[in-house]
Amino acid sequence: MIYKKVNSVQEALEGIENGMTLMLGGFGLCGIPENSIAELVKKETKNLTCISNNAGVDDFGLGLLLQKHQIKKMISSYVGENAEFERQMLTGELEVELIPQGTLAERCRAAQTGIPAFFTPASFGTEVAIGKETREFNGKMHVMELAFKADFAIVKAWKGDTAGNLIFKGTARNFNPCMAGAAKITIAEVEELVESGTLDPNQIHTPGIFVQRIFQGEKYEKRIEKRTVRKIN
Amino acid sequence: MLTKEDIAKRIAQEVKDKYFVNLGIGIPTLVANYIPKGIEVEFQSENGVLGMGPFPFEGEEDADLINAGKQTITTLEGASFFDSATSFGMIRGQHVDLTILGAMEVSENGDIANWKIPEKMVKGMGGAMDLVASAENIIVAMMHVNKAGESKILKKCTLPLTGVGCVKKVVTELAVLEVTPKGFKLLERAPGVSVEHIIASTEADLIIEGEIPEMIID
Fold first, then answer.
1. What PROSITE patterns would the database entry show (chain A) (predicted)?
2. Choosing a second label site near B129 at 20 to 30 A (CA), which of A231, A232, B91, B147?
3. Partner residues linked to A48 by β-bridges
4. Structural domain includes residue B218
5. To probe the interface with B, which of A24, A126, A168 has the most B CB atoms within 10 Å?
6. Which residue in A27, A121, A224 is closest to B47 by CB distance?
7. Contacts of residue A122 in chain B, CB cutoff 8 Å?
8. What is the CATH number of the domain that holds A170?
9. Residue A155's Cα: distance from chain center in Å?
10. Nearest CA-CA distance, residue B210 and chain A, Å
11. Any idea what the CATH number is for the domain that residue B146 is in?
12. Which domain does A156 fall in, by range?
């Protein structure tokens, strides 16, 4: 067993420097690496390029990094919940690349699995496809998309072990398994970290080979973005 | 004229037994409330769940369990979770039978625009571009005209496109339209709405053959 546990979030994020490209897991505020984001705010790392499906909300998730102007460029599919984001984008302070959600996921998986590029029908005929190679397969037009290149991937799991094996819960899984192993170094923060040999190998979602550093987050707020309930009759 | 709930009820009639269905945000989400009795349907939410159930009761919300609109949800018996790449694999691989989504504009060749208003609104496409490029069967739920009374059913979309030549059917507060190789065909009109009213509210040309029946909404 190769031991991946680090003792603190500070140790986990060592080597993240100004100007780097980070992948961050999560969909909305669900399954985001909130301890790592808080530490990035403290570290004041700047000029970051962030690959993440969303940009958080004004005061949580990646919104915290946006408020401090630590992000130079966002690559996302949907950024609708963040007023500060919209302001920075419209004034040109923030560079934004919006791409289809499935393309975002697949560009992560391609990076993880050694596929340099792939063709997808998504975005053909739209402004997103401008400048990209297109090709017809089986009578349908497709757009070529490239694997991402990132310095660090930061993912969040429910449980993990010291070998870096990960188990996710519910829809907090989302982009996390696609990003693990898709960057030069992958950092996993987990709600519960156990010794290797404790988790059932049959139940592992992300094998430890994709994770270089793992730590247990100090606390999880797990904020709900849109609390929606049904009335009892 | 139909309410949003009525539009959802009419679209629910298009959902067939054994369908896997992806519902977009807004009116499409309401369709789940009106699925015909006696059929088996599973809802897919592209953030990574199949077998999505209704909203939770108060106190039972789980931060780790949301739909693509970021709302708290529950799951039904037989549900499963998966990652985003697998989720869009289901969508591009055409394992999802029906996609229902909203739109700002639809054109007579089946183009759809629903993700951006240049210099006014830039929220992003989310999964919409993957869904419309991949799905065989796409139904759009939308309002026929905007607040200024201008038609959103057009000869050609004016907003940045989400997908080209993909929409099969449109249900609005006024009508049910089918996208045919020759353009929009008027299939049904809302109760009490005349064919003339629909023509006047539609910028695109309409193919009108014989008597146009009224929609049946229970």
1. COA_TRANSF_1 (PS01273)
2. B147
3. A71
4. no
5. A126
6. A27
7. 92, 129-130, 133-134
8. 3.40.1080.10
9. 6
10. 35
11. 3.40.1080.10
12. 9-115+148-216
Residue type, A119: F
Q: B126 touching A, CB under 8 A? A: yes
> For residue A228, is it within any domain?
no
Backbone angles phi, psi at B88, to 5 degrees: -80, -20
Of B12, B14, B172, the C-alpha closest to B106 is: B172
Model-level pTM greater than 0.95?
yes
Answer for the pair B204, B155: CB distance below 8 angstroms, yes or no: yes
pLDDT for position A81: 80
B160 found inside a domain: yes
**Residue B106 above 70 pLDDT?**
yes
The answer to whether A219 faces chain B, any CB pair under 8 Å, is no
CB B110 within 8 A of CB B166: yes
Has residue A174 been placed in a domain? yes
Predicted complex ipTM exceeds 0.90 = yes
Cβ contact A105–B84 (<8 Å): yes
The answer to the question of residue A208 being in a domain is: yes
pLDDT digits 0-9 by tens, A81-97: 888 898 898 889 999 99
Q: What is the DSSP string of B30-45?
A: HGGGGPPTT--EEEEE
Give Cα B2 to chain centroid, integer Å: 15
Q: Give A4→chain B minimum CA distance, Å.
A: 23
- Rounded CA-CA distance A158/A169 in Å is 6
Say how many CA atoms lie within 13 Å of A169 toward its Cβ.
16
Q: How many domains does chain A have?
A: 1
What CA–CA distances, in Å, run from A79 to A72, A87, A96, A179? 15, 12, 10, 19
Structurally, how many domains does chain B consist of?
1
> What number is the average pLDDT over the span B134-146?
95
Judged against a pLDDT cut of 80, whether residue B3 lies above it is answered with yes
Distance CA A122, CA A131 (A): 15
Question: Using an 8 Å Cβ cutoff, are A217 and A187 in contact?
Answer: no
**Are A211 and A4 contacting, i.e. CB atoms less than 8 angstroms apart?**
yes
CB contact under 8 A, A78 and B48: no
Question: Of B208, B204, B195, which is closest to residue B154 (Cα–Cα)?
Answer: B204
In a domain, B212, yes or no: no
Range of the domain at B178: 4-207
Q: Are B78 and B49 in contact (CB under 8 A)?
A: no
- Taking alpha carbons only, the member of B120, B180, B170 closest to residue B145 is B170
pLDDT reported for residue B200 = 97
B24 to chain A nearest CA, in Å?
Answer: 14
Do residue B57 and residue A229 have CB atoms under 8 angstroms apart?
yes
DSSP B22: E
Tell whether A230 is covered by a domain: no
Tens digit of pLDDT for each residue in A168-201?
Answer: 999 999 999 999 999 999 999 999 999 999 999 9
